[in-house]
Amino acid sequence: MQYNATDVPFVLEFFTNHSPRNTQQAQYFWSPLQTPASLTYFISIKENIPLGIRLYAKDEKLPKDSKVIIESSTYDEFGKQKRLTIMETTRDHHEYLFMPHTGDEFPWRLGVYFLEVHIGQDVYGSGLMVSPIHLSQEQVQHMHHLLEQEIEGMIYDLIFTQTSTSQEHEILRTKSYYDYILRLINDKEFLSANLMQIERNPLSTIETFYDVGTFPCKQDQKSLRMKQVKGNAVDFNKRKRLILDLPANRWIKHVLLSWKNELLTVSSAIEVDLTHALTRMAKKEDDKRANEKHKQRYFNARDISYEARSAMSRRIYRLADEIVRIQREVGVLSRWHDAVQHMIGRIIYILVSTDLKNIPHGQQRPQLKEKHYRDISQWVEEGRRVLLGRESAKHIVRVLKPTWKVYEQFVYFQVVELVKRMGFQVSSHASWDQLRDLRSGTCLTLENDKYIIHAWYDRTVDLREDAFRTRDQFFSRQIIQPDIRLDLYKKGDVPMLLSCVAMDAKHRKYRSLYNEAYTNEVFTQLSKYLNIFYAGQNTTPRNKRSTVVHRVICLYSKDDNADVFQDEQPLIYIQLFPNIEDGNIIGLEELYRELSAWFEETVGE
To answer: What are the residue ranges in the chain where pLDDT is below 70?
Structure first.
């Protein structure tokens, strides 16, 4: 059954500010088990905008505990989709569910989400359709498609959803043993019960045989016949014995031996990662102590600058945050290592302390009639496929990344493609994980016969003294972090730095990036990129006394009210977004001309 807004005793509103013009009511509802006939029945909201929700009665008071329950794009540790609950409000309720720039995450990604309105015993269904700001749904999908062509899976956040991992999903990457371990932990009770059955009740059969003796014991007709054939000098006594050397037991021993070897391999891989994590944590802790000592010594110096104080505090905070993340990683890896070692111990005990120790292992699988034999054999076989990457992970929830993040990555790879179009080839890759996640500090190296270009993503540029401590030749007057930086070198025994370009990718309208009436925050931020210097000796005389950044380009998403190319000295603004009609990228040629001009001007000097 479907309902219009006039048919229900409540009003459900979504608002972005106090203005009635920016408030929309849900107009269509349906029975919970019914599917809406069209997406036009869904409430349309934009991604990452302020949002509040009101539920109030039209006339009389609503029953107690009236509420709205909405699906979200976040998941709990059990892999279940989290639901947002908004209790009954008043007509003048103005509390926001989400506000940008507060550190909270927008609860939805692009897509459709269902909601339920509970009024007493009645439940009304409806839904939200979250669409991108500035770009159309088709344009964002086109960016997704282009990124998927570059690196499979990079438009997704991979969230592992087992209880054992709590909220530490950010450390989980693409190694196959991660999913293997999650399966092992998730099925721990199931595996333990089956192993106990194999340990206590191995498959066996009773075999009858006839033992030759000098005096009679238990005999039957066959014993007497055999005695008559052989003569009366000996007796053939009937006996029974337990036989364990069966095809099923040979096979299960082979399975357990193979499983033990696989677990030993996984354990070694975890130990390597654990050692690496502990090393990184020790280095971060040493860096943090050194920075705290440096701060304690110089923070209250009479002539220290505000930027230096700010950089000291920011660096210590960043290191503390990184240490906490690594500690969670170490905790997870330690628990996983213990789980693997425990299972290895159980298997070794069964192999050396039960009757299976005297049975040879077989290579061919017989028909397994016992359920616990089948379960263990099937689990080990499926686990092997996961370990070898032949079976997709069952413990991963894929959630689209926020559009602003997708746009940053889209811009980065468009810039890399343009550098390749200028005659350069990729000569050294970052790791597959780094490219897929495009982590801060990722660098691709491209070169031709005479020159090298380093394409950095989200690389931090520190103050001079801090950069020197980390052996980084680039420094600035304050901490800055361009989304993209291209460093051009001339080849030689020691490459010579010639010039740099700094770029930012902004998923915004032009009016929020530049204002003729006053200097806004974005213009100030971009202008700071002109203050990047180089301390290395192998560079041009000009670079030794001035900034090495000779162009700053702001790339932003679609704005019909602005020109594709805007030159606002000393900055350049270029729209860069996919055109669905012809499949081209708007602004790509303008960006190519700027990068080509920068290259030609630099090498022609």
So the answer is: 33, 35-39, 74-81, 103, 134-176, 208-241, 389-401, 429-437, 605
Given this model, what pLDDT does residue 145 score?
61
Give the ranges where 438-492 is alpha helix by DSSP (H).
464-469
* Residues 6 or more apart in contact with residue 569 via CB below 8 angstroms: none
Q: What is the pLDDT of residue 343?
A: 92
Residue located via tokens 């302020």: 50
| Residue 436 and residue 153 in contact, taking contact as beta carbons nearer than 8 Å | yes
> What span, in angstroms and rounded, lies between the C-alpha atoms of 32 and 3?
12
Nearest to 394 by CA among 170, 167, 181: 181
Cβ(244)–Cβ(201) below 8 Å: no
Place of tokens 């364990």: 244
Burial of 388 from C-beta contacts in 10 A (0-12 / 13-18 / 19+): exposed
- Give the list of residues 6+ apart from residue 487 with CB closer than 8 angstroms, or none: 453, 454, 456, 497, 500
Spatial separation of the C-alpha atoms in residues 415 and 428, rounded to whole Å: 16
Output the CA angle 536-541-545, nearest 5 degrees: 75
The pLDDT, as a whole number, for residue 226 is 65
Residues 254, 257, 261, 266: is their CA dihedral positive or negative? Answer: positive
Please say whether the beta carbons of 376 and 198 come within 8 A: yes
What was the pLDDT predicted at 139?
64
Give the three-state DSSP class for 597.
helix
pTM of the model: 0.63
DSSP 99-124: -TTSSPPPS--SEEEEEEEEETTEEE
466-488 CB burial, b ≥16 within 10 A, e <16: bbeeeeebbbbbbbbbbbbbbbb
Residue 160 bridge partners (DSSP): 396
The number of C-alpha atoms within 13 Å of 515 and in the hemisphere containing its C-beta is 9
* Distance, CA of 367 to CA of 383 (rounded, Å): 20
pLDDT of residue 227: 64
Q: What is the C-alpha to C-alpha distance for residues 529 and 554, in angstroms, rounded to an integer?
A: 11
How far, in Å, CA of 48 to CA of 61, rounded?
Answer: 33
